[in-house]
Prior knowledge:
The chain is an alpha/beta fold and 223 residues long. It has helices at 5-18, 37-45, 56-65, 84-90, 100-109, 136-147, 167-186, 202-207, 217-220, and strands at 27-31, 50-53, 72-75, 93-97, 117-123, 152-159, 193-195, 212-215. Residues 31, 33, 54, 76-77, 160, 198-200, 214-218 line the site of pyridoxal-5'-phosphate.
Amino acid sequence: MLTPLNKLNDTIKQLAQQAGRNPHAIQWIAATKTQAPDTLRALFMAGQKQFGENYLQEALLKQAALNDLAIVWHFIGPVQSNKTQGIAQHFDWVHSIDREKIAQRLNAQRPLTLPPLNVCIQVKIGNEASKQGASPEAVIPLAKTIANLEHLTLRGIMALPPLSKNNLEQRRYFKQAHEIFEELKALGYPLDTLSMGTSEDYPSAIFEGATLLRLGSILFGKR
Ligand SMILES: *Cc1c(COP(=O)(O)O)cnc(C)c1O
């Protein structure tokens, strides 16, 4: 069952107002891993145009089934180097660049017939072994590299911090990502995207400055 989009959008708007933020500054993408093409189609018809996928092969099947729709496709999963070509060819955004080699390959493999690929640097906040991401210290050198790549447009920072039941701890993680985002902007990078917040923790992400939430289970139920 799809949570009615109006209700979700209202909740986001209310949280934005509580946080003293402009509701229009907060968008979200539907995180659609494991969801069938028909589910994406229904969501598109209901007004949601931006989708995030984690696995290239799975995404390609859905893209083929939905190629009549003007969907904006975001790649949000870990990027393996043997998948960069397909990702460069079939996505509008990549949120999860965590090292130079991946950035270089996506740049070299982006078809010249397409606009530059929008990218975010995934920063690793917290110490979970299972999570990808550049260390906070590695972000500035990586941003410098990406800014020099003609076929990539650096849009911002992505974070997927550990989930915490402690609200203050949760906010502290998001705050760290926000500080890195602001640090890059202060260095002159023209960034507009802070991609953070899932179904479990998006209210905290909104309070800490997220501009792009990535929501799955709140729309589709538990995977
Ligand atoms: C699955 C996923 C999400 C969405 O998580 P939910 O808890 O289902 O909202 C967000 N970001 C990434 C990178 C994901 O893989």
